[in-house]
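Please fill in the sequence for the structure shown.

STRUCTURE ENCODING:
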């Protein structure tokens, strides 16, 4: 969707810079339990399952809130929604420090999780400032705010040692509150604000109408892995490293940062590649590399005894700490490309429903960040194998790759049969040629004989 009036580059960059910084701080707060949760585990005598639930609880709030925050941002714009969200999250983070038992910790974690809803607010706000052909790069830069998890993994251990978990939470609350005030004062209304006021707020059913498209839910599965698994590993890795490799909390935090930083910063590259080569190709790269990495990481330390010609042959297989660090870096790199590619799709297919559709996709992805750490803890308690977490991730990414490839091949057959170009494949051609100004399910030209939505053009 074209911008209503040309926007100066300086204002575009200002909006992008403010939203990216704000999202970075929100993400740092959202993942703070990956570090302070380890201190809470000792202080309150928590099991791995209880720790997994505590780490995952903020992700639940952040995920569910994305749907409503996305709709509110479509209605009212990102400036006020983003600013007030940061102030509310800061207050909840500060109140967490008064928790005296495990139920109170869970309640506080629900409030802290509101910071995770900042993602869809920022996506909607940022996308409104940029032309369609530049949205992939802009959203990739914004999404690099995931580096906030790396900030937490690197800085929070030192704060924890110096101030305790309560002091660490108070520092985080103060910084986020300051950013909320700065955003309200410095951010501008997005270029679509005047159009929203002129047209009036759309109804809830109208905003949610694209959710009937199965493609939205397929994108959601992709994001369940590339983002949900990213959040889950950002929370789980310090505990995993301390359990498997017996490192201290500072070392575990630094190594975990070697995963979270590339899994965040290279999202910028993912946006650029999605604009240049197509988001679908980037998704193929992401899933194929992730299948390989998770397969290797899922293999536990094993002693082999083989019946040889001259007797037993024994050897030992184990992934060293160095090899683990390299593999987790590679996994984070490709997941970062995938995160950008998923959200490159949304403004292309649903230009007037970025908040609603992005809210659902972000919610499902965030639910991955909630379910997976909890499942990791349960697998540890039930199966007793640390690598079971990567076994689960291997199954998820393999399923996502299979579904994506099946859908693309099916769309190719529909395109050949109807001599029309399916909007399921714009990234394999020229994305700008397929931008739909609006989604009109009642218009026959958007449907083929099998009931699949398509867009026609003269070739």
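FILLED IN BY: designer on duty
SEQUENCE:
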């Amino acid at each position: 969707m074209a911008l209503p009036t040309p926007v100066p580059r300086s204002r575009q960059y200002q909006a992008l810079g403010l939203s990216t910084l704000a999202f970075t701080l929100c993400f740092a707060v959202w993942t703070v339990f990956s570090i302070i949760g380890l201190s809470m585990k000792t202080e309150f005598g928590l099991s791995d399952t209880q720790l997994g639930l505590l780490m995952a609880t903020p992700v639940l709030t952040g995920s569910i809130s994305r749907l409503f925050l996305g709709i509110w941002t479509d209605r009212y714009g990102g400036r006020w929604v983003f600013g007030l969200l940061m102030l509310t999250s800061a207050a909840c983070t500060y109140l967490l420090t008064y928790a005296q038992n495990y139920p109170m910790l869970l309640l506080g974690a629900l409030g802290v999780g509101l910071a995770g809803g900042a993602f869809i607010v920022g996506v909607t706000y940022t996308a409104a400032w940029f032309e369609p052909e530049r949205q992939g790069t802009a959203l990739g830069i914004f999404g690099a705010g995931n580096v906030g998890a790396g900030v937490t993994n690197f800085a929070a251990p030192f704060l924890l040692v110096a101030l305790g978990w309560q002091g660490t939470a108070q520092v985080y609350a103060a910084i986020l509150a300051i950013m909320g005030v700065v955003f309200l004062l410095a951010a501008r209304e997005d270029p679509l604000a005047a159009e929203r006021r002129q047209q009036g707020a759309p109804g809830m059913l109208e905003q949610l109408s694209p959710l009937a498209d199965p493609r939205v839910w397929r994108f959601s599965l992709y994001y369940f892995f590339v983002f949900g698994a990213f959040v889950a590993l950002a929370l789980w890795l310090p505990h995993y490293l301390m359990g498997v490799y017996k490192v201290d909390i500072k070392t575990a935090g630094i190594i975990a940062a070697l995963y979270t930083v590339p899994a965040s910063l290279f999202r910028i590259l993912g946006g650029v590649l999605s604009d240049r080569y197509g988001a679908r190709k980037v998704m193929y790269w992401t899933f194929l590399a992730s299948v390989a990495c998770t397969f290797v990481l899922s293999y536990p330390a094993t002693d082999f005894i083989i019946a040889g010609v001259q007797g037993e042959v024994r050897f030992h297989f184990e992934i060293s700490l160095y090899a683990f660090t390299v593999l987790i870096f590679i996994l984070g790199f490709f997941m970062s490309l995938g995160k950008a590619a998923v959200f490159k799709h949304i403004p292309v297919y649903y230009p007037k429903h970025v908040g609603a559709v992005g809210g659902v996709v972000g919610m499902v992805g965030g639910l991955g960040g909630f379910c997976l750490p909890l499942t990791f803890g349960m697998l540890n308690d039930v199966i007793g194998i640390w690598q079971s977490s990567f076994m689960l991730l291997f199954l998820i990414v393999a399923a996502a790759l299979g579904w994506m490839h099946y859908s693309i091949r099916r769309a190719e057959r529909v395109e050949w049969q109807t001599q029309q170009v399916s909007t399921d494949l714009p990234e394999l051609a020229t994305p700008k040629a397929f931008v739909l100004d609006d989604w009109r399910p009642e218009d026959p030209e958007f449907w083929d004989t099998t009931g699949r939505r398509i867009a026609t053009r003269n070739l």
